[in-house]
């Protein structure tokens, strides 16, 4: 084994360890791996950067823009709501229709975006049916991964294995070549969930009598907010008078948040004064006799009242009426895997300044956090409870790339949908699919045309809006991981690993070797990105097929499908992690449901893949 090969394996092992460790972003790990290969002289600068000129990278970026246009116009949401309504009051019908709709949407756009868009709809429908959302959110995530296998563009591994075939001189895979295998996988997953879902998917009971949305009053009870609401009256002469809230620094000094201010306003009435109640904002100035509605710990409240010589008023009989009105309310906010808010401290989110919203508490894996909340860093899977005007909560909900707002959201269509853009977005997507299906132009060209059309027709506001919708982490991850495949090929690493598979499993036949690739890819994809997994295993699989003198197509299909079937851990895929907090799931819940499903799919795929793609 030569020195370059040893160095390549060392870098590969360290890269995998860093992926599994999950303390550094996956795109940063991929860039570090690329730089290590370049600095050690294993690959040239041109080879290191060649990944970013790959057509698949451009396609992935373009598909994010196309998907964003579909989401923003309300086309996907309207379709999802319409079909889910067909379920009526049947949980079984809801499960079946939900998995079908999500799988269909995920076949043509980001599965993470599909889950983020569908989550509030599913939770709302489940609540109206007096059922637990946890019974549907895990199947929602699984269906998004199963749906990705239906088409060439459904998931990055499909694009990767198709490109590897071209690189080795084989015919590329067509747009619907994955569809037969995808339908078998989806059908298997659905049958499994229908028969065994009620036994393995947790049913976290949520006693809710509000049939319209995730009940704000229920959220207050879950976060135990009612016991932390207080009223304070500003006395004449106190140091609070004429002070702006931002200058008081109450969150950092006392851990307190002023939510509302009640003030007597006699300027616009002739015979009597009028009681006004409005949301507190950073620039709000405190006046004499104001009543402050404050959220925080009792000891801190008393300390604050003592320090500023203000009066602590008796609690209201129904405290939640202070926060939940026609104009104001509370909602839970989840963070997407690529949210710009991740790793920021609560104090740095500045939701008060940007959206006029207050943060009341944090839910981290079922534990509510209130003490020293301002200094808590947002982690993936966290949820926060926000309070403010409904219109401001709905504005925050529009940042679908960064957050998912669970609670009262707007019942009206988006602005783009009101302007009639939804049919245009649908026509653009259909046109892209026709161009790719009949190979009128190269696939990457069809995607670029569709992405540009989304901007020109107003489905996206402008190019800045389009660029902001691209998940750059996924794009960089793919581009930076391709040099590892080049290094393995160049140093003989691909041949070495291929020999390892062939020598140990080859005597049992090509199906056994294919099964070995499926199993290894499936295991790796539970801990590292499906993109990185496919980049690593696809060249090894095709080399092994050539060595065995069999068709490489079933081997690469096995790698692609296995990379996408990541069900056993919440970190296996962004959709899994996204539903974890909303469904109240634990790691054990994913093990319990995901491992049996993956074993069943492994057995089914060992028969289905050779049937549709003969060895």
What does the model show?
It comes from Evansella tamaricis. With 615 residues, the protein is α+β, with helices and mostly antiparallel strands. It has 2 domains: 3-205 and 431-612, no CATH class; 214-408, 2-Layer Sandwich (Alpha-Beta Plaits). Helices cover 57% and strands 9% of the residues. The protein is built from 29 helices and 10 strands. It has helices at 3-21, 26-39, 45-49, 55-72, 75-85, 91-106, 111-128, 134-147, 156-167, 179-200, 216-222, 245-248, 250-253, 298-308, 320-323, 346-349, 351-355, 390-397, 415-418, 422-437, 443-456, 463-468, 472-491, 493-505, 510-524, 530-548, 552-564, 574-583, 587-612, and strands at 229-233, 257-265, 274-279, 291-295, 311-312, 328-335, 358-364, 367-369, 383-389, 403-406. It has a 5-stranded antiparallel sheet with strand order 3-2-4-1-5, covered by helices on one side. A hairpin with a 2-residue loop joins strand 7 (358-364) and strand 8. Helix 8 (134-147) packs antiparallel against helix 10 (179-200). The longest helix is centred in the last third of the chain and has 26 residues, at 587-612. It starts with a helix and ends with a helix.
Question: How are the secondary structure elements laid out?
Answer:
Elements: H1 3-21, H2 26-39, H3 45-49, H4 55-72, H5 75-85, H6 91-106, H7 111-128, H8 134-147, H9 156-167, H10 179-200, H11 216-222, E1 229-233, H12 245-248, H13 250-253, E2 257-265, E3 274-279, E4 291-295, H14 298-308, E5 311-312, H15 320-323, E6 328-335, H16 346-349, H17 351-355, E7 358-364, E8 367-369, E9 383-389, H18 390-397, E10 403-406, H19 415-418, H20 422-437, H21 443-456, H22 463-468, H23 472-491, H24 493-505, H25 510-524, H26 530-548, H27 552-564, H28 574-583, H29 587-612
Antiparallel strand pairs: 1-4, 1-5, 2-3, 2-4, 6-9, 6-10, 7-8, 7-9
């Amino acid at each position: 084994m030569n020195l370059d090969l040893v160095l390549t394996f060392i870098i590969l092992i360290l890269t995998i360890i860093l992926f599994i460790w999950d303390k550094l972003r996956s795109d940063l790990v991929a860039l570090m791996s690329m730089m290590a290969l370049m600095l050690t002289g294993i690959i040239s600068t041109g080879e290191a950067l060649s990944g970013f000129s790959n057509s698949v990278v451009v396609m992935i970026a373009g598909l994010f823009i196309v998907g964003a246009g579909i989401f923003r116009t309300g086309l996907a949401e309207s379709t999802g709501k319409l079909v889910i309504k067909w379920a009526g009051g049947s949980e079984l019908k809801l499960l079946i229709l939900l998995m079908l709709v999500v799988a269909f949407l995920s076949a043509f756009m980001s599965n993470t975006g599909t889950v983020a868009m569908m989550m509030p709809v599913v939770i709302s429908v489940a609540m109206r049916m007096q059922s637990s959302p946890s019974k549907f959110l895990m199947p929602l995530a699984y269906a998004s991964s199963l749906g990705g296998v239906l088409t060439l563009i459904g998931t990055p591994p499909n694009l990767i294995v198709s490109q590897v075939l071209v690189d080795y001189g084989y015919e590329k895979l067509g747009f619907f070549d994955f569809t037969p295998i995808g339908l078998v996988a989806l059908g298997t997953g659905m049958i499994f969930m229908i028969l065994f879902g009620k036994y393995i998917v947790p049913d976290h009971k949520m006693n809710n009598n509000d049939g319209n949305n995730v009940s704000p009053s229920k959220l207050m009870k879950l976060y135990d907010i009612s016991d932390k609401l207080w009223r304070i009256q500003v006395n004449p002469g106190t140091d609070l008078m004429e002070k702006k809230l931002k200058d008081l620094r109450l969150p950092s000094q006392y851990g307190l948040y002023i939510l509302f201010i009640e003030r007597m306003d006699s300027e616009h009435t002739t015979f009597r004064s009028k009681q006004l109640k409005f949301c507190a904002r950073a620039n709000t100035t405190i006046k004499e006799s104001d009543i402050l509605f404050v959220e925080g710990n009792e000891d801190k409240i008393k300390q604050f009242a003592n320090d500023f010589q203000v009066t602590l008023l008796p609690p209201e009989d129904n405290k939640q009426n202070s926060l939940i009105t026609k104009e104001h309310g509370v909602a839970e906010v989840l963070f997407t895997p690529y949210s710009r808010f991740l790793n920021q401290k609560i104090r740095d989110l500045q939701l008060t300044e940007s959206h006029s919203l207050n943060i009341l508490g944090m839910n981290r894996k079922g534990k509510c956090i209130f003490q020293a909340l301002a200094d808590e860093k947002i982690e993936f899977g966290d949820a926060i409870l926000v309070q403010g005007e409904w219109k401001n909560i709905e504005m925050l909900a529009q940042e679908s790339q960064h957050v998912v707002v669970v609670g009262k959201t707007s019942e009206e269509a988006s602005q783009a949908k009101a302007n009639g853009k939804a049919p245009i977005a649908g026509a653009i997507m259909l046109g892209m699919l026709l161009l790719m299906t009949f190979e009128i132009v190269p696939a990457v060209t069809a995607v670029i045309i569709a992405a540009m059309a989304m901007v020109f027709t107003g489905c996206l506001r402008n190019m800045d809006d389009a660029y902001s919708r691209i998940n750059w982490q996924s794009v960089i991850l793919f581009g930076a991981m391709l040099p590892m495949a080049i290094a393995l090929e160049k140093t003989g690493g691909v041949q070495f690993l291929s020999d390892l598979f062939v020598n140990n499993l080859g005597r049992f036949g090509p199906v056994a070797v294919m099964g070995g690739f499926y199993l290894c890819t499936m295991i790796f994809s539970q801990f590292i990105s499906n993109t990185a997994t496919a980049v690593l295993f696809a060249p090894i699989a095709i080399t092994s097929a050539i060595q065995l003198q069999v068709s490489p197509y079933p081997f690469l299909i096995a790698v692609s499908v296995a990379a996408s079937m990541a069900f056993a851990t919440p970190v296996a895929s962004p959709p899994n992690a996204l539903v974890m907090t909303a469904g109240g799931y634990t790691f054990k819940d994913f093990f319990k449901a995901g491992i049996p499903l993956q074993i069943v799919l492994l057995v089914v795929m060992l028969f289905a893949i050779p049937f549709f793609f003969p060895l």
